[in-house]
Amino acid sequence: MKRRIVMKKPMVSKLASVSLASMLLLAGCSEAKTSNNSADGEKDNGKAEITWLNILHTASPPTDTILNELEKKTDTEIKFSWIPDASKEERINTALASDSLADIVTLTILENSSVRNALKSGMFWNIEEYLDEFPNLKAIPEDMLKSASTEGKLNGVPFQKDLARNGVVLRKDWLDNLGLEVPKTTEELMEVAKAFTENDPDGNGKDDTTGFMDRSDLVYGVFKTVSSYFGTPNTWEVDSKGDFVAEFETDGYIETMDYMKKLYENGWINKDFAVTAKTDQQQNFAQGKGGIYVGALFDAKNLETMAAGIQDNMELALVNDMTSASNSDRAIWSGGNGIGGLLAFPRSEVKDEKELKKLLKFVNDLIDEDNYTLMTYGIEGTHYKLNDDGAYEIINQDLWQQEVQPFASSRPNETGYNLKDPNPIKAEADEKIAENAEYALMNPAVPLESPTFTTQGSELQKIITDATYQYILGEISLADFKQAVKNWNEQGGKTIKEEYKEAYKATN
């Protein structure tokens, strides 16, 4: 890919300083558009000028290198206003309240009450009727569009993420040392956990290993993934009457608690899992203290990297097809139904359909594979090369981090391109995550509105979270847990279920 030579504009024309106060940062988007754009959002040279209020997940904004290439490929001029990820909720709330927005606004916390109220209020364009005009947008799966909608209206282009990333990562070398096969059922997985704890899998003659190495997280740790294997619904289930049933009201949830309780009582999971942070969990696994890690399958690459120089003989096996005696069907919960947020178009900035369609064309073009590759790996020969296996290999890590990595979170679609990673374990993880999509369990409440959940959901969930941990740790009985569920219903849960039922009926 050839690099073009361009006259550089002042950096501030493209990159808003993330150190500015939020109001100045956000208001700059509208000012830039008013002063530089013609009435239909087009420059004198015929290029569409686009302002974009976006989230920055890296320490500093990118240089212009990739931006220049994106502008060339999309025939646009793009002006980013970057908001640091750590302060995104506060700044987005401020921007919405003051209507200090941009042509495109990245909304990633869709459950935020200010965001939901803005989406319901008509602040943003409903784009559903325009999707068929753009091939990449037309190809977005119907289920994903539905999940990204609010009260039946699609108020932006969804960020398409992997539907289901989780699975089981095991020490394959420990399995080999003990003459064990890779487990395929929860029963076999528990036997492996027992053996990894009791049978000296690393052969050092010490009692210093455990089976599961978990963390204090009932969603992204062991619990929710194993719960999928027992047939538990993903957060909510809609029964034949249209009634909503919470996951913790099902047999699968109780089976999962019993499974975790047995692991804990026998010492086949780290005893401090209920208070362990993710970084400590991963470091302990990398140091050879545990042999089963449940989480995102691509974490396997990080675990290998962390183990370098400590557990150089570590060999990992990835499992994404686990089942159980009570549920022979493969299933894995989906995080957010594959929705990572919305690229939304405010009516205050985007005045008419003509301007909206230019922006939709721009987003459609960003989904093209060559633009995905540019925003993921950069420029061939500068940031990456294709190795002999056809994998994309970064050749200048520092330059890639500076110029390319900040754009990764701006890709409207992260899936379906099958670009090969040079790291074998990462490539395998990518393949298994793609396979997971066929078995992903959706959460039917994602696109629905429940005022009670918005105001009380987090507080009510704490009742269930506390009771779940207390049951696993042997501090309360099953009857006590069921009483906690009853309390949840009486204090607002029943109302949430009724509100979801009505919202579901209205949009299905």
Overall description:
The protein is of the alpha/beta class and 508 residues long. The chain has 18 helices and 15 strands. The strands form five sheets. Strands 2-1-3-12-4 form a five-stranded mixed beta sheet, with helices on both faces. Helix 2 (64-74) links the parallel strand 1 and strand 2 (76-84).
**Distance between the ends:** 47 Å
- Gyration radius (Cα, Å) is 25 Å
- Mean pLDDT across the residues is 91
Please count the beta strands (DSSP E, at least 2 residues each): 15
Low-pLDDT segments, ≥5 res: 1-39
For the structure shown, list the relevant keywords:
508 residues; alpha/beta; four-stranded mixed β-sheet; 13% strand; globular; disordered N terminus
Brief write-up:
Helix content is 42%, strand content 13%.
What's the helix and strand layout?
Layout: H1 22-36, E1 48-56, H2 64-74, E2 76-84, H3 88-98, E3 104-107, H4 113-121, H5 135-138, H6 142-147, E4 157-160, E5 166-171, H7 172-177, H8 186-198, E6 210-212, H9 222-229, E7 236-238, E8 244-246, H10 251-266, H11 278-286, E9 290-296, H12 299-307, E10 316-319, E11 332-333, E12 339-344, H13 353-366, H14 369-376, E13 384-386, E14 392-394, H15 397-403, H16 424-436, E15 440-441, H17 451-472, H18 478-507
Parallel strand pairs: 1-2, 1-3, 6-9, 11-15
Antiparallel strand pairs: 3-12, 4-12, 5-9, 5-10, 7-8, 13-14
